[in-house]
What we know:
The chain contains 3 helices and 4 strands. By secondary structure, the protein is an alpha+beta fold.
Amino acid sequence: MRTPTYIIAALAFSIAPAFAQDVEMSAPPALSADQSSDILAAIRAAAVVPETNMDFDPSIGAKVPQHVTLLPLPLRAIQLLPNFEGYLFFLLPDGRAPIVSPTSLEIVFILE
């Protein structure tokens, strides 16, 4: 038995938006001092080496150069910030951790 084409097309169009959604954050999250500390502790516990080749200004909206090693956020960070699932981070020498969009590679938030 042949499946009508319009059913397949309808399924494709209903599923496609889930894959094509832009994951960009519209506003930075409001974190308590405890939440921020918990996330930074999880990042530091992962034994991440701070980025030393800082030839750019790591500020919100800055595009991260290709030479910077980006890592996925630890599970604890995702538990506290579920909207950041799939986002990346790197560690600065001063201990701050910029959160980076996986699509634009721009810094969207900085944990301090």
